[in-house]
Amino acid sequence: MNWKxxxxxxxxxxxxAIADIHDGNCVIMxxxxxxxxxxxxxxxxHCLDYNDVLLFHMTTLGENECLQPKCYGHFRHVSNxxxxxxxxxxxxxxxxxxxxxxxxxxxxxxxxxxxxVAVFQATPPNEEGYCSLxxxxxxxxxxxxxxxxxxxxTNELMPFTYGETMIHVSQIDHILPCAYRLPELLSQEPSETxxxxxxxxxxxxxxxxxxxxxxxxxxxxxxxxxxxxNDLGIHSEMFSDGVARLMRSGNINGRRKTIHxxxxxxxxxxxxxxxxxFVDGNHDIELYPVDYVNDPFxxxxxxxxxxxxxxxxxxxxxxxxxxxxGMRQYSGTGGQVDFIRGACLSREGKSIIAMPSTAAxxxxxxxxxxxxxxxxVTTSRNDVDYIVTEYGSARLKGRTLMHRAEDLIRIAHPKxxxxxxxxxxxxxxxxxxxx
Length: 435
Hints:
Layout: H1 3-10, H2 14-18, E1 26-29, H3 37-45, E2 53-57, E3 75-79, H4 87-91, E4 95-97, H5 105-108, E5 117-122, E6 130-132, H6 140-146, E7 149-155, E8 162-163, E9 166-168, E10 174-178, H7 192-202, E11 210-213, H8 217-224, E12 233-234, E13 238-239, H9 241-249, E14 264-266, E15 268-269, H10 273-279, E16 285-287, H11 290-293, H12 296-299, E17 305-309, E18 313-315, E19 320-321, E20 324-325, E21 328-329, H13 336-345, E22 350-354, E23 358-359, E24 364-365, E25 367-368, E26 386-389, E27 392-395, H14 401-410, H15 417-428
Parallel strand pairs: 1-2, 1-5, 2-3, 3-4, 5-7, 7-10, 8-16, 11-12, 11-17, 13-15, 14-16, 17-22, 18-25, 22-26
Antiparallel strand pairs: 6-9, 18-19, 20-21, 23-24, 26-27
Helix pairs in contact: 7-8, 8-9, 14-15
């Protein structure tokens, strides 16, 4: 059958599409800016028709009506990465958190993560009948291959991206044509503290480095401090507007990358409408599934790979908690550990954990004698390399416990250094001069 005729036969309505979702099914949904909004809205409107449907997803930008309290009991959410709109669902026991490295999720789909129905966004088909998954590739292809039913919202405003993002009309069961702007993740102006952190990180980055950056104002502050660096590359789980700015200025060109030379590589993109327009049809940017992008052995092939991530707290041994505050799950592991390990395997590679020295308006030190009881260790003390605050950087790799504690106290906020020094003296039975 000609793909155009097949496309016409598969054009559906939200109501017909969700009729193929049944009680007890597991539905895997796209995430970040590419979360499928038409199907989410339809499911929420008809939530009373469902019982015990498991919805697997990660962060979803914008409104996800399926997370509303009226849907509790009808849908059970399982997420590998929480955000502001999904934390309450887990706290109310209407969902649960799924601990795993992001790179392992595609391999679990169809096994540990059942997949009856896959729901994703994509572009309308090109002249050969292929749709691009747009700004979020990650685990989509694995879910589409495993699912019994595939529902795709073909969004006319989804950017067309290259790499390994294509699915064919023949792989789809329900096509929902639509046109809506992707939700934005707007960058806030970095504070003085964050700019100082960015500058301290930039001092550790050499010309020709390939970078991985996480989410938030600190990665943006790092990018804002790289205007004097040359021939930078990107191999990152995700990227946002700061990368586009440095691509336009020529600081990021991938010229000295050792794999995917001249290309920016990621598995998803989140940012402003300006970023989405920049990505659309841009052959300099390639998206690949997360089990490739986040594979430490792939990451390690990049010369001078530098990973830059943030965290919630660090203890004096160098244990890093990035995803939980005590027993409260706050976000997820994501690709932090994979990129830390990949960067440290890279020739001349480095990994950086960057954070403000305090939290809660300066009332809490993020450098602590012990992690908050119940907090998960995201990056172990054996993996950690550099810790950076606005007060400087401390390299922990290759350092003893005593030396780690000394160096961490020196980059803690000055008002918390005395009490950290007291713990140091109790622990090591000797005074610390930290000024």
